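Case study B.
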Amino acid sequence: MQNKIIYIIGAGHSGSTLLDRILGSHSEVFSGGELVYLDKWKTFDLDQFKRLPGFTKCNCGERLWDCPVWSPLSYKEENRIKSRFNAVENARIGIGAILGPYFAQFLGYRASENRSFYNGIFSLMKENSYSSRLLTDSSKDPRRFFDLIVAPPDQEVVLIYLTRDPREYLYTHLKKSRPIYKKRKTAFLILLEWVSIHFVSRRLWARFGGSKARISYKDLTDDTANTLNELGSILNISIQREGLEKRINESKYHIVNGNHMKRSDVRPITFEVRWKKAFSPLQRAMFNSLSFPFRWMDGRSLYRAK
Ligand SMILES: [Zn+2]
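Model:
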């Protein structure tokens, strides 16, 4: 089997960590995690980066620079994957996603050196005697995926688009204390973020011509066996439902940006709805009506292409 990159897109807190660990429990798959943070580690001012405790960690428990897998990563400045966190660049990518990459490039968008970035990671895996041919990149950011469309790496890219009910997304963002962001966002802004991520993701999904699967968090946790079948068929591997949690808990991972959840044991996988219990009737009514026009964007159905 040739080397492949499994790129996961979707909004944060949609179950991508669980998906990453499920895939990585298979011997053919290496869970890379949010590889976009490798780039941040290498290009940020280290002192500044060290102040973001979560991002500097591999889920083996070590900091990236002490982890046996990631610490030797060689990195050239010219291979740098650009950060996509400014409004002008976001607008270029948005236009590129809607009208086509040519328009983004016309407006000044330049793709990153994805080829050398991923080749570097695959040779690192080889040096560490991992026999896996598939590497997950759960960076999620659709802008990063746009970059992969414009400047494809040497490896085949398989796309998994993961969705989740916007009300659950609201719940996690409002309830979870996120000290690194300092100020809390309002429900309206969180929903707006959810809608724009999915708007761009859907455009990129339609634009991408390779193997792809679109699944919802509900598919993954409520209809796990079928979902794993579908995912297995586009990846040419077989992922068994039986004993899945045990395999996950026994696997050793080196997931970049490894928070506590990425290290702890997974409980039996079941579909959970937490937002209903957590909010007052008034809040529920508000979130229901606010998210109603967009709820169709939460795929809720297994979809496989190619
Ligand atoms: Zn590690």
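Residues 4-303 form a domain with the Rossmann fold fold (CATH 3.40.50). The remaining cases will be described in the next quarterly update.
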